[in-house]
Amino acid sequence: MASPELEPLAVVLFRAGGAWCGLEAERVCGAERALGHSAADDIETRLALRVPARGVRYRLCLRGARNVWYLNVAAPLELTHMPAGAIRPLPPLLAARAPLPGLRALALRDGQLVLLLDARALAPDTSGPPTAARGFCG
Q: CA dihedral in degrees (62, 67, 70, 73; nearest 10)?
């Protein structure tokens, strides 16, 4: 008996530190072009990469378990659907020692490596009271 075909995963793609990265689209509740100084953290800061990318930036609104928060990412920004067969979760030992916070899987898209990140692992401290969104994704 053949196993059922897994649904593609909706992913928001962007660039960080010269690499393609992606977040599950269900965690992204909005996006806008980041103009000037933004109170949101840069993805490069969250991933402990040295230099934030120059050029066009977007501010993503991300949904956590207890709050909504913002993260700046580098263009291009793209919503895509990745076939389940193109995604490879990290083995437990590698996941425990992953050099990038929130790195959960690797994928191939058009022959290029994509780092799939868990937005929940990148979220700011949520030990305080729940917060509501301010701005464009409230």
A: -40
Mind listing the pLDDT tens digit for each residue in 70-87? Answer: 999 999 999 999 999 999
* pTM, two decimal places: 0.84
- Distant-in-sequence, close-in-space partners of 138: CB < 8 Å, separation ≥ 6: 68, 132
Coil, helix or strand for 41?
A: strand
Residues of the chain with pLDDT > 70, as a percent, come to: 83
| 64 and 71 Cβ atoms separated by less than 8 Å | no
Cβ-contact 15, 21 below 8 angstroms: yes
**What is the distance between the terminal CA atoms of the chain, rounded to a whole angstrom?**
46
39 pLDDT band, cuts 50/70/90, is confident
Rounded to whole angstroms, the Cα distance separating 34 from 41 reads: 11
Structure-block tokens of residue 14: 């962007």
Take residue 73 and report the two structure tokens written for it.
């990412």
| DSSP secondary structure string for all residues of 17-48 | TTEEEEEEGGGEEEEEE--S--SSEEHHHHTT
- Distances in Å between the alpha carbon of 33 and those of 77, 125, 132, 137? 10, 25, 21, 13
